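dumping the sequnces here before i forget
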Amino acid sequence: MNVRKLFVGSALVAAALSLGAVAFAQEDDIVSMQSTNYLTDTTIADPIGEMIETLQFQKEPPYTIGFINWSTANSWTVQIVEEVRDEATLYPQIEEFIIVSSEGDADTQISQIEDMIVRGVDALLLIPVSPDAIVPAVEEAADAGIPVVVFAANVNTDVYVTKLLANPVLFGRAGGDWLMNELECQGSIIVLNGVTGISTSDLRRQGLQDAIEACPDGGEGITILAEEDAAWAYDQGRLATERMLAAYPEIDGVWSQGGAMTQGAIDAFEAAGRDLVPMTGEDNNGFLLAWQERLDDGFRAMSASEPTWQSRVALQAALQILQGIPVNSYYELQVPVIFEDTVDQYVRPEYSDAYWANSRLSQEAADALYLLEEEASS
Amino acid sequence: MAGMTTARAGLNRLNSPVFRLIPRVFFALILMIVVLGVLSPRSVEPSNLLSLIRQGATIGLVAIGQTVVLMSGGLDLSVGSVVILADVLGAQLINGRDENVVPVVLLVLAIGVVIGLVNGLLITRFKVTPFIATLGTNLIVFGAALIYSGGAPRGSIPDSFRFWGNGFVAGVIPTAALVWIGVTLVIALLLARTAYGRQLTAVGSNRRAAFLSGVNDNRVTLLAYVFSALMASAGGLLLVSFIGVGTLEVGTDFLLSSIAAAVIGGTSFEGGRGTIWGTFGGTLFLMVLYSILTVLALPTSGRRIAEGLIILIALALYSRQQE
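..and the predicted 3d for all of it:
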């Protein structure tokens, strides 16, 4: 009896203590105190996995954190790096923040992960270049006791502590729902994809399909006239649209899964002397500028985005883990959208087309990357 | 007698490598246009056909350079990166200013010449195989474009320069189409009328024999790579004037398209044979093919299979005619 009481009692005390520890840690959470904690906002990061206890990783600052980026070959990944660099400056607790880029190469990434283990980083942020090739290296890091936060791309192992991924189906669905609403589920559309066979492209396209099938008539009223891969690029987006315009006298809407392709589509419609129709796009500045310029002419558009500041959320997750605060094993990043009434808030005429407008960059950081020199007006 | 000699010379000229193959490629092209017209009458209206020529212009310029390299018995894998470097450099240096256009165009073309010299010297002086040499410069040039732009290119193109890629002459004829036709005409004439044209095919078909008959084969090869990089730079400039801003994200595969256009146009992959007009026809063939595939509205997988099959059939028919 006594033994049992003692057992129950000590279990209660232990539970209370650990609850207290968690509550204490969250109150003192450096992320909530020194930044905006995105992980607690389900409209940004929806926790759909299970809660993970992280006390084993708890560590006193100062912290050394590593970030292995997948590539710096386009402005989206460049902005990913700048966002997290910016976020890291908010925490004096981070003594060293090591950023490297694998330039799309799995072998490079594997040796970079091994290098991070040797350097003894306290936590590792990782954008995998390959879902399979780097698995052994990620497992090695986990075995070495380093908490790994995976984001932006998936890896086929579960030894990481948490992962943050945008769901491309939701991206495609956001544009699809808007377009179906614009057309009242009646009409002929053309479709511009990225690269068929790459999961981002296929899943975004799936989102369009879901939107069409969600029409009251099951999508009977919608005809897809033509559909092409345009590699998310202006040149192919424009050429594909020109070919479609030549063939089809009546096009009622354009569903595009990339902003540069939509820019190409706008220019193709205008060059062919055709009236603009509702089009979906992305949050790159070039498309937003083209959209804003044509607002008064009644051009209807929307933009979905896969935010570049997800790297900030990943760093915040790492800081939660290092403080011993539980995190979810899987956060699904939500898709921010821009509609006609908000486009003015995002568009930046003084920046280059490559700027991703759904940004949380500081003014200085964004200026350094994108500010155009004053152009000759004469 | 004199008249007969002239007539014979004229016939011989028609029979020269530059002109000999035109009818075949253009026959296939006309067939494809007929198919397109049957599938979609709108697509073969004059304005849409002119638009098809404009669509081929950037690939067409790059393919002219690739053709010359292929004729010399080589291969230029670096054209895609040279196009992107020219595009990024052009936009960032012109930076929206009219007065920058001429100096920047000259500078970008000069950089193309330097890249071509590097390719050519690696191949002739250091005896690196063309595949490896141009694969290496391809990586280096793309790396340079990345470093120069910091991954986020800036700059824009003023209207005066956009006219070349995006404008119309007399309101209906795309300027880019005229540029392409003009360059094709000049280069075809140069190859037909100069010793270099003959030396190119001589070196390409039998380097040793050409050398023994007094042709400076290294000089011929070097010039071919310089010319290819120059044309790729020109293609990049035409591309950036079409797009209007610098971008690293170019969706067109200039390497594969330039090789396909040349080979469909009758240029031999083994060297020694090829025509500039053939490449012109080959590029247009690709453009008409893409339109046909768009009109057929095949799923992407079917589209790729159809594209591959039609190119293979064109090549098979062509090589049979050769024998």
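Chain A touches chain B through 46 residues (CB under 8 Å).
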